[in-house]
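TL;DR need structure tokens for one chain.
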Amino acid sequence: MVGRKAAESALNAAMRTGGDFAEIFFEDTRRNALTWSDGSIEDALTGRMSGAGIRVYNGLSSVYVHTNDLSPAGLVSAATKAADAVRDAYRAFDAHLTGSIPPNAHAIRELPMDVSGERRAGVLKAASAAAKVSPQVKQVRSTLISWETDVLIANTEGLFIPDRRVYTRLAVTAVASENGENQTGYFGPGAQMGFELFGTRVDPEAIGRAAGEQAVTMLNAERCPAGVMPVAIDRAFGGVIFHEACGHSLEASAVAFNNSEFAGKLGEMIASPLVTAIDDGTIPNEWGSTNIDDEGTPTTRLVLIENGILKNYMVDRLNGRRMGMPSTGSARRQGYAYAPTSRMRNTFIAPGSDDEAEIIASCGDGLYAKSMGGGSVNPVTGEFNFAVNEGYLIEKGRITKPVRGATLIGKGNEVLMKIDMVGNDLARGQGMCGSISGSIPADVGQPTLRVSELIVGGRS
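>> reply
TL;DR here they are.
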């Protein structure tokens, strides 16, 4: 990608005006997206992106410059621009980089780019056909997304380390329609794997069928009643509530500036004793896993909350300086055009000892949130609202009829305290998380759990 001598020259240029640390992030990404709609291939997109981002620190300040000119002269030019923005005092610097290769926990058997278009289209065709579970399913759109990224990170501490990341994902959207009304079902599983994803973890027909069934179920559902009630939140993507309402508030990018409801609360009880929450970058082949983060720090398994007590924040290098804490291997970015910051990886609530059936029965009259959608969160206050993509009433401890239009409304810290049952059926779901360092693969998860009371928005 880039030679060691060229990286050393660029780092020397970045440090020439008095910065105390500099790094270079090199990236080469190849992407492919194939979309099947209405019985044929709708789009086939392939692209390649390469470039470098150069960051210079001066105390608690940083300057970031990026370029797609990877020639030695181009790198020095970009580094000089970053250095010029520091302008503290001139000094000579002589970088000496030592190469290393991180252990790779994510074995790839079949690179997506090496797979024929016919085989890729076969996955999409199977998923789309399976989604047609009813004449009410009027439209299905299936997309196979894959990308291969090679990165190289060099810094003035001597680091010179490469990494390879390969991602594959199937996204199926089904639209059910009747009498001018539409409802959508969606599933999008993925992993840090090659095309072998479809022979091991993901059955395209099962994913398509699930998307179609969700759309049809919600089309025929009644409006959800509003009120305060117990809520059972299903496993896997139900964890998006913790991710959004609590996880972002545990990132150093918020905590370092006191823009978090959990700032200054290490060692304090912030959740029910039943809650243990983990951000784990070490799980082989998982969607949010890393070998190293985007600053070159080895990945970690980080216990955020243990039995209700706040144990750790997710910390990157720069915000670690502000907080007086070491990096936790949590620095991530979309690509070379973004400076890294603290981000989640595979974030989930650990399993408990309760049975799913017991959790449902304990709710009396309440709501079963089977599939969560998008929402909004204020990380400073923890206030959130989330749409329920697929929900069901619980009446006298039994799941009865489907309801639509439900939203869950609350505050992150309050919800954590009101979790009073945690299941033993942990599962995870995949998504893309957007923040100040761009959009990145992030995995969310939890077992089925019960919130003793939560505001449910719907029809009053």
